[in-house]
Design a protein that fits this description.
This protein is α/β, with parallel strands linked by helices and 397 residues long. It has 13 helices and 14 strands.
Length: 397
């Protein structure tokens, strides 16, 4: 991959070597990562690890990089409190930054450790509005659920013309944030929400929840939860004969879970920050990732890759000074990475906007592009029928 994929400030690399080594006792700059590699959220943690691993390999091979990076990856077991403890340990062992807070609950638990040590916490994927501006040391690569919930609420009411939607949401910080925003935006554009049905986050039997939702005869159901629970709810809605629209969040964008859901997932609509395929940096990352792992990267792998590369770019920006790393992150402008252009605002949020996707033939497809493709295909079929009819008429048949 070209150096442009990773660094906007290439000229600073060699100059930063002395300062970087001075700040780290002559050794490599330490960066930690706390990811859910086992447990319920491993389906997000594992692709993020792959993205991190690919970034680290490229940094190790990069002869133009003016300093060494050492990366330590720890498994949180999908436990927020363990995530916080591991972050504390990594900071105290010398990490200038920790990549973690894959889920909202984990990020919220880890922020106090970053605050106590006055060091950076870079979340690749946590999205709750509660995290916006929570600390000058907290940055995230995935946009706030405020944008995601707003997008889906607007889309459901205005584009799909849905008049009534029941909300199903787990009792978690993540689900609470995104469903509140969806409800506000959906109602603002004329939609009605006859019920918001919340259930414990550890629920495994959703029969009563689904039956309660369908008792309101909704046109649509909006599900705010993590992927595996969404898949179970989607399956049960289909089993109960629900033919309306099923709307959900980017948390469902796991190829593994979509495949497991099978036919039940067809037609499910979700919001997701896209990796622009026409961006040369994104295309280069995708090609390299597939060559390394044998399958295309998910959006989570791309965010894992960028989490490390963005930190390295910021380290260059501040000449390797860990104390000023937050300023380096704030100072990044038009950084081109695997997820597109990355730039943080004064509250640590990234300036990205989600699009709407639909699951079509087992894969995520841009809703508007898919709709246009189907429209064009229908027009082609109509034209073929018309041509056949004209030919038949002309021959006297």
């Amino acid at each position: 991959m070209s150096r442009m994929v990773r660094f906007t400030f290439a000229a600073a690399a060699v100059a930063s070597l002395g300062a970087a080594l001075a700040c780290n006792g002559g050794g490599p700059i330490q960066i930690g990562a706390v990811l859910p590699l086992t447990g319920d959220h491993a389906l997000y943690g594992e692709p993020i690890r792959q993205g991190l691993e690919l970034a680290y390999q490229e940094l190790q091979a990069d002869e133009e990089l003016g300093f060494e990076i050492a990366l330590t990856v720890e498994d949180s077991g999908s436990d927020p409190q363990r995530s916080a403890e591991l972050a504390r340990q990594l900071y105290q062992q010398g990490a200038v930054a920790v990549i973690g807070g894959v889920t909202t609950d984990a990020a919220l638990a880890m922020v106090p450790a970053a605050e106590r040590e006055d060091k950076i916490l870079m979340s690749p994927s946590a999205s709750s509005p509660r995290l916006t501006g929570i600390s000058r040391n907290f940055f995230r690569l995935y946009p706030s659920d405020f944008k995601e919930g707003s997008r889906m609420g607007n889309f459901a009411a205005q584009t799909l013309g849905i008049e009534s939607a029941v909300i199903l949401a787990s009792e978690s910080d993540y689900a609470s944030g995104v469903q509140d925003v969806f409800k506000t935006e959906f109602e603002r554009y004329g939609g009605t929400v006859p019920a918001v049905i919340e259930y414990p986050a550890d629920t495994t039997d959703f029969t009563a929840v689904v039956e309660q939702a369908l008792g309101h005869n909704p046109v649509a159901v909006y599900v705010a939860d993590y992927a595996r629970n969404v898949a179970t709810i989607v399956g049960q809605l289909r089993q109960h004969g629900f033919e309306g629209k099923i709307l959900t969040t980017s948390a469902f964008a796991s190829p593994e879970v979509i495949e497991q859901a099978g036919q039940a997932a067809e037609g499910v609509i979700l919001t997701l920050t896209s990796m622009p395929p026409d961006d040369p940096q994104v295309a280069a990352f995708s090609q390299t990732f597939e060559a390394e792992y044998g399958h295309p990267p998910s959006v989570w792998a791309a965010h894992g890759y960028d989490a490390l590369m963005v930190l390295v770019a910021a380290i260059e920006e501040v000449d390797g000074s860990p104390r000023d790393l937050w300023q380096g992150l704030r100072g990044l402008r038009n950084y081109h990475g695997a997820t597109g252009v990355v730039q943080f605002d004064e509250r640590g949020d990234v300036g990205k906007y989600p699009r709407t996707y639909v699951i079509d033939e087992g894969a995520l497809s841009d809703y508007e592009e898919t709709l246009e493709e189907k429209r064009q295909e229908l027009l082609r079929q109509i034209e073929q029928i018309n041509r056949a009819a004209r030919a038949a008429g002309g021959s006297g048949s």
